[in-house]
Write a structure and sequence with these properties.
By secondary structure, the chain is mainly α. The protein has five helices and no strands. The protein has helices at residues 4-26, 46-56, 82-86, 108-114, 135-146. It binds heme C (HEC).
Length: 152
């Protein structure tokens, strides 16, 4: 008996589940630049945001990546190297800088954390992949960028 006719519906259902699971993350909310904060609520230093990068991002964003031996997104966020790889550094998957000091709308990391990356010409999925950052940590990163992304 040809196994294909019985396997096809199962494959199709599986595909639908995969597509349904990806759809909400891939659908870019329309990006409204006027909704992006332009002023820091207070000055935030690198010391305050670096622990977020090393505990929530570096498990994937390290020189070994997620097992492939390549940093995912070409981005290393381990302690001590986050600032150099973010501030004024070109994004690999968009035309923006990863962190444009003082300007959230031009900072690709902002769009990766807020899910608006597709609206600014980016690709991939919302960060942190497979998890979420609490709003207060997103605000802290925003305020650091709006503080001019100080290197200390
Ligand atoms: C589970 C693994 C994983 C975690 C955790 C993770 N990332 Fe990513 N990140 C990826 C992968 C894979 C890519 C490339 C594909 C994509 O963009 O979806 C990526 C891409 C990126 C990019 C795009 C890089 C570029 O130059 O264009 C940024 C920015 C980014 N991640 C920031 C973060 C930040 C900030 C955190 C922590 C809050 C984080 N990621 C946590 C896996 C991860």
């Amino acid at each position: 008996m040809n196994p294909l006719p019985s396997a096809a519906p199962i494959l199709l259902i599986g595909l639908m589940f995969i597509l349904a699971g990806c759809a909400p993350k891939n659908t870019a909310p329309t990006f409204d630049a006027s909704s992006v904060p332009t002023k820091a609520s207070r000055r935030v230093t690198l010391k305050e945001v670096e622990p977020i990068f090393s505990t929530k991002c570096a498990a994937c964003h390290n020189p070994m990546g997620m097992d492939e031996g390549v940093a995912v997104g070409g981005l290393v966020l381990v302690h001590g190297s986050a600032a150099a790889n973010l501030v004024n550094a070109k994004s690999t998957e968009s035309k923006l800088l990863r962190v444009h000091p003082g300007d959230l709308a031009k900072s690709y990391i902002y769009h990766k954390l807020n899910g608006t990356f597709a609206a600014v010409g980016g690709t991939g999925l919302k960060m942190p992949l497979g998890g979420t950052l609490p709003p207060e940590e997103i605000s802290l990163i925003n305020d650091w960028i709006l503080s001019g992304a100080p290197l200390e």
